[in-house]
């Protein structure tokens, strides 16, 4: 008598999902790794990528990593990610961008919070559950508008902070 429980997810593990076979989604995985965990701190298991390194460059670094993350999300949406998964992905990127924009604290946060790898895991889980759909053209359009609005807001906020710092410096750091 067999007392083991049936594994209802065995067929999901044995079948290859589009996330594993599609070249563009493999590209998403490679870029996420490059941005979040390409390098290892010698003597430790701590991994980091280009995201926290670029984040050290004021304004341009955070906006650049935001643009790369947005491109990854658009690619994932084009391959059938559902609205719920896309909203979670955008929230990951938004959190990474907003907190990462804070001087000093944001730099440490960027080393710890790996939003692109979180998004790839969300997509793989989504594919594993068999819930992926076809193209979401309307969702892509809405996502692009939302991401462009977020990009503009972060750029505007960063510009205002830089202007304030410039004016403060002119008034208080005279030579």
Key descriptive features of the protein:
two-stranded antiparallel ribbon; 175 residues; disordered N terminus; 9 helices; mainly alpha
Short description:
With 175 residues, this protein is mainly alpha-helical. It has helices at 10-14, 18-21, 23-36, 50-54, 60-78, 83-100, 105-112, 115-128, 137-172, and strands spanning 39-40, 47-48.
Description of the molecule:
The protein is mainly α and 175 residues long. It has one domain. The chain is 70% helix and 2% strand. It has a two-stranded antiparallel sheet with strand order 1-2. Strand 1 and strand 2 (47-48) form a beta hairpin. The radius of gyration is 20 Å and the shape is flat. Residues 1-16 have low confidence and may be disordered.
Strand order of the largest sheet: 1-2
Largest sheet: 2 strands, antiparallel
The computed structural class is mainly alpha
Number of helices: 9
The coarse overall form would be flat
Low-confidence stretches: 1-16
Radius of gyration: 20 Å
Termini distance?
88 Å
Mean pLDDT: 77
The fraction of residues in strands falls at under 5%
Helix content: over 70%
Summarize the helices and strands and which ones pair or pack:
Elements: H1 10-14, H2 18-21, H3 23-36, E1 39-40, E2 47-48, H4 50-54, H5 60-78, H6 83-100, H7 105-112, H8 115-128, H9 137-172
Antiparallel strand pairs: 1-2
